[in-house]
Amino acid sequence: MRAYNTAVLKMNKQAAIGSFVLRTALCNGMDFHPKKIWRYLKDAHLDGLLLRAPDALFDSAWLNTDKLQLDRPPQPLFRSFAQFFDTPTNASGAPLTLGFEGFFRGAYSYHFHNFWWKPFDTTRNWPDLGPRFMAGEIVARGAANPDLDPDEWDDLLSDDKTDLDWATVLKRTFESFVRGERPNMYGEWIRW
Fold first, then answer.
1. Which domain of life is it from (predicted)?
2. For 60, which of 69, 80, 104, 183 could close a Cys bridge (C-beta 3.0–4.6 Å)?
3. Sign of CA dihedral 103, 106, 112, 118
4. What are the domain boundaries of the chain?
5. Which H, E and C letters describe 89-116, residue by residue?
6. What are the angstrom distances between the C-alpha of 65 and each of 3, 37, 68, 75, 162?
7. What is the average pLDDT across 27-56?
8. CA angle 47, 7, 42 (to 5 degrees)
9. 6 pLDDT more than 70
10. Which of these, 63, 102, 61, 106, lies nearest to 81 by C-alpha position?
11. Residue 49: which H helix or E strand, with range?
12. Which pLDDT score is estimated for 155?
């Protein structure tokens, strides 16, 4: 599919193509949707001037959620971006079983759409970064639970869902990297 995904879009300062895209989007009600940007460029016969990287490098779920690539979809198969936070029951064992290594393997990055209000981890909605960062964790948890005495924080595993969502698995994997318990995706370790 020849269309642009604006999740990663670099425009050089004072470049004509950047000015064109910005002005055209402003004239169209601030519409920067990837399909609209493609249409702006196509209509102006400028479509050959903007380099397009494959979506799988940075937004693997986009083609699935727009129902454009369902023959050989990247994994996990998200039918909507909400499934990053609320993994469907029929796929709920995958996040914990596959872990970070099974999440859009080979993608340069991942971003999610329009769910800024959703916590990544509903049970532990604070950074769990270990003793080195405990003071900050106490402040964050206190702000999240102002009516709860810190002595009553129990952190029971029984509070977790049986099958964790993808957002939770990714958050906890990153936290374990910061604590120095595992390497990152490149095999690098943090040595404190």
1. Eukaryota
2. 104
3. positive
4. 1-52, 56-178
5. HHHCCHHHHHCHHHCCCCCCCCCCCCCC
6. 15, 19, 8, 12, 26
7. 82
8. 15
9. no
10. 61
11. none
12. 67
